[in-house]
From TrEMBL:
Its cofactor is Fe cation. This is Pirin. Belongs to the pirin family. Residues 299-321 are annotated as: Disordered. Keywords: Iron, Metal-binding.
Length: 321
């Protein structure tokens, strides 16, 4: 998924200096961003208060949107580097195309995982014949330096492992949780899990104390460690937890995101994750010249034009503002 902000602000994130070493309850409110077509997203990361959770560096939540008479998601070809994109749906379908030749319709609770490596481009759109509702999340995972120049590739996994408890089904989409491991390729110690809770469920989910965590509320009424978390918001939990209390006041859907705090400092701008302003400038120039990122075939429309770079140089700010 693209960051369609026409004036994206460069930021430096990562590093352990701003990791909260103990359990906390920090509620993150979203910023509303128009994505393309009739889709508006709620952006949780990067946030005014926090830029990363483990290697998770970008989180958008959208829907549920009634797109019965709308085109739905329409995101033209755009570039990525230095990251993985994770597509996750609760309702609807998204058609993915990329410059490696991948063509895949992603459906609810199926993992669409694109590793950009050194450079890739892709498009995302609702199929012309699509379901009435569209509801999901798009996320980015920052690649560590040792793997950020890897060959670009796309993975689709329709059969994912689950962890169950009375009233809870946790689908592991990336990394591992309670002994269950996703088939998706991960480059850092990480976890991404979709949590479906039945009304009245009161459960404690096992966690890794060395990971930092956040919980994105997708639907329903739920208390996370006693804190009400409304759909479209996220609760940052810090580190040092061995379990997470969850109580569902109604049927509810959550996403658990976590991982070891990301040690490297990153520069994020538009759809690029690099290590310096010079890398970002070069990536933008390559995209505008038609170099390096390849071509997406089959999308009916022109690729996105990169926004202008800001005049001011980057200033390191760490994991939080």
């Amino acid at each position: 998924m693209s960051n369609l902000d026409r004036a994206p602000v460069p930021s430096v994130c990562g590093g352990r200096g701003f990791v909260v070493a103990e359990p906390v309850r920090e509620l993150l409110s979203p910023r509303h961003v128009k994505l393309g077509g009739s889709t508006e997203v709620r952006r949780l990361l990067p946030n005014l208060g926090r830029r990363m959770i483990g290697a998770w560096a970008f989180v958008d939540h959208y829907g549920p949107d009634d797109i019965a008479d709308e085109p739905g998601m329409q995101v033209p070809p755009h570039p990525h580097m230095g990251l993985q994109t994770v597509s996750w749906l609760h309702e609807g379908e998204v058609l993915h195309r990329d410059s490696t030749g991948s063509l895949q319709t992603i459906r609810p609770r199926e993992l669409g995982l694109m590793t950009s490596g050194r450079a890739i481009s892709h498009s995302e759109e609702s199929p012309r014949s699509h379901a009435r509702f569209l509801h999901g999340a798009q996320l980015w995972v920052a690649l560590p330096d040792a793997h950020r120049h890897t060959d670009p590739h796309f993975e689709h996994h329709a059969d994912l492992p689950t962890v169950t408890a009375p009233g809870l089904t946790a689908t592991v989409l990336l990394g591992g949780l309670d002994g269950a491991t996703s088939p998706g390729t991960a480059y850092t110690p990480i976890v991404g899990a979709d949590l479906a809770l039945a009304r009245g469920t009161d459960v404690r989910l096992p966690l890794e104390p060395d990971f930092e965590y956040g919980v994105l509320a997708m639907s329903g009424e739920v208390r996370v460690d006693g804190v009400p978390v409304l759909p479209g918001s996220m609760l940052y939990l810090g580190c040092g937890r061995t379990e997470l209390p969850l109580r569902a006041e109604s049927d509810a859907g959550l996403m658990l995101l976590g991982g070891e705090p990301f040690e490297e400092e990153l520069v994020m701008w538009w759809n690029f994750v690099g290590r310096s302003q010079e890398e970002i400038v070069q990536a933008r120039e390559d995209w505008m010249k038609g170099d390096r990122f390849g071509e997406v075939h089959g999308y009916d429309g022109a690729p996105l034009t990169a926004p202008e770079l800001p005049a001011t140089p980057l200033k390191p700010r760490g994991r939080v503002r």
